[in-house]
């Protein structure tokens, strides 16, 4: 279980950095970039501190979140909205930002803290796919919109 807990913590902390990194493309002021990095590291620290070793096979059966998981969800969600807003400001809220933001919004409600309460859909096959996979597909599509947008920003800067 120790190895599992280590990788669970690493995964959850890495998500904070994955949310922060794309935002940095859209920050032109170095002071704002450093502030954003400091905030990302604070979110990483709080996420690490709010992780617990209780995750296991029964984790997916939880219908409500305990205090630490709820706090972690709130901290990470607030940080995500902050990063999304900074990206929108930096990119001028163009159509790709709107598409990506909508897809991220949908994925938020497909995320594990919420999807545990939903019944399986017709396209879900037990032990093959479910809400977790729907979440990742939606995030991947949103990421694609933001990658294309970041690429356009970098090209325009040259």
Automatic annotation (TrEMBL):
Key words of the record: Membrane, Transmembrane, Transmembrane helix
Source superkingdom: Eukaryota
Membrane-spanning parts: 6-27, 32-50, 70-89, 96-115, 135-157
Keyword Membrane: yes
Record protein name field: Uncharacterized protein
């Amino acid at each position: 279980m120790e190895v599992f807990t280590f990788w669970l913590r690493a995964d959850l902390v890495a998500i904070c950095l994955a949310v922060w990194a794309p935002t940095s493309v859209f920050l032109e002021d170095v002071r704002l970039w450093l502030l954003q990095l400091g905030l990302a590291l604070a979110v990483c620290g709080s996420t690490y501190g709010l992780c617990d070793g209780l995750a296991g096979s029964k984790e997916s059966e939880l219908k409500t979140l305990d205090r630490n998981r709820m706090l972690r969800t709130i901290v990470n969600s607030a940080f995500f909205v902050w990063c999304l807003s900074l990206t929108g400001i930096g990119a001028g809220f163009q159509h790709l930002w709107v598409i990506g933001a909508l897809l991220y919004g949908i994925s938020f409600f497909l995320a594990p803290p919420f999807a545990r309460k939903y019944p399986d859909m017709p396209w879900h096959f037990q032990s093959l796919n479910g809400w977790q996979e729907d979440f990742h597909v939606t995030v991947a599509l949103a990421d694609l919109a933001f990658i294309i947008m970041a690429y356009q920003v970098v090209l325009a800067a040259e």
